[in-house]
């Protein structure tokens, strides 16, 4: 399975944008890039996903590099409720892989 | 609508005992997943059910672990002869086919 690399932790000031990077240099052509986040004492929740083009939804934006070997999750205005562990995950739509490989993610701290 | 629910929320047991964890997926979701998360770690895939197909048990750590899904809905994860290293949060997720996964709040298992 193609794996991802993320920084262990990041900090952001409240109300400022946050850019969470993810490297996936071994990504295959059929891998979708998914982002989940896990708030304290809760199960993970879906944030966003994409294949090649940048994606926007009400929670965040996903910027995907042209060679697809990296991506960035963008929170446009961090709030205290965004403090969580953010996981970048590849899912192979070609093989219909069933489980998601969650690494250790990036722990985001939001400073008031 | 109702999300994924898991019971119990907390379970404390003694080494060597049998435990049963329950997951109620979102109605209509055909796929169901079990993961576990040790303290400070990412999620570890355990088992996956999809419709009437044979489950993917590739993540079960030992033969002490088993799971079943009755009637394509509720699932139970059972652990026999529990060990202290089984202590973790056990997370269940469901999805509509191979779509994004919706997680329950988890069951925190503590083996003394």
For the structure shown, list the relevant keywords:
heterodimer; A: 112 residues; mainly beta; 5-stranded mixed sheet; 4-stranded antiparallel sheet; B: 112 residues; 6-stranded mixed sheet; 10 strands
Tell me the number of strands of chain A. 9
Oligomer: heterodimer
Shape of chain B: globular
Helix percent band of chain B:
under 10%
Largest inter-chain contact set: A-B, 18 and 23 residues
Order of helices and strands of chain B: EEEEEEEEEE
| Largest sheet, spatial ordering of strands of chain A | 1-9-8-3-4
The assigned structural class of chain A equals: mainly beta
The proportion of strand residues of chain A reads over 45%
Helix-strand blueprint:
The complex is a heterodimer of chains A (112) and B (112).
Chain A lengths: L8 E5 L4 E6 L7 E8 L6 E6 L4 E2 L4 E4 L5 E6 L8 E9 L13 E6 L1
Parallel strand pairs in A: 1-9
Antiparallel strand pairs in A: 2-7, 3-4, 3-8, 5-6, 6-7, 8-9
Chain B lengths: L4 E3 L2 E4 L5 E6 L6 E7 L5 E8 L14 E5 L5 E5 L8 E8 L6 E2 L3 E5 L1
Write a brief caption for the model.
The complex is a heterodimer of chains A (112) and B (112). By secondary structure, chain A is mostly beta strands. Helix content of chain A is 0%, strand content 46%.
Describe what you observe in this structure.
The complex is a heterodimer of chains A (112) and B (112). With 112 residues, chain A is mostly beta strands. Chain A has no helices and nine strands. In chain A, a hairpin with a 4-residue loop joins strand 5 and strand 6 (61-64). In chain B, the strands form two sheets. In chain B, strands 2, 4, 5, 8, 9 and 10 form a six-stranded mixed beta sheet that branches. A four-stranded antiparallel beta sheet of chain B has the order 1-3-7-6, with no helix packed on it. Chain B is built from no helices and ten strands. Chain B is mostly beta strands and 112 residues long. In chain B, a hairpin with a 6-residue loop joins strand 8 (88-95) and strand 9 (102-103). Classes of the chains: A mainly beta (112), B mainly beta (112). At the A-B interface, strand 4 of A face strand 4, strand 5 and strand 9 of B.
């Amino acid at each position: 399975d193609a794996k991802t690399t993320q920084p262990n932790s990041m900090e952001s000031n409240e109300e400022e944008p946050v850019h969470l990077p993810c490297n996936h240099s071994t990504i295959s052509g059929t891998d979708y890039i998914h982002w989940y986040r896990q708030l304290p004492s809760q199960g993970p929740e879906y944030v966003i996903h994409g294949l090649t083009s940048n994606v926007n939804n009400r929670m965040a934006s996903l910027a995907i590099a042209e060679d697809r070997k990296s991506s960035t999750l963008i929170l446009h205005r961090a709030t205290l409720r965004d403090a969580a562990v953010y996981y970048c995950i590849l899912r192979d739509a070609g093989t219909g892989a069933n489980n998601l490989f969650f690494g250790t993610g990036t722990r985001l701290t939001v400073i008031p | 609508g109702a999300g994924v629910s898991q019971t119990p929320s907390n379970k404390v047991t003694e080494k060597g005992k049998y435990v049963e964890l329950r997951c109620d997926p979102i109605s209509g979701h055909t796929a169901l997943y079990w993961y576990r998360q040790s303290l400070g770690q990412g999620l570890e895939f355990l088992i996956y059910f999809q419709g009437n197909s044979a489950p993917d048990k590739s993540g079960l750590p030992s033969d002490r672990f088993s799971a079943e899904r009755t009637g394509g809905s509720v699932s139970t994860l059972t652990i026999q002869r529990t060990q202290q290293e089984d202590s973790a949060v056990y997370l269940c997720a469901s999805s509509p086919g191979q779509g994004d996964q919706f997680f329950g709040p988890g069951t925190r298992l503590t083996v003394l």
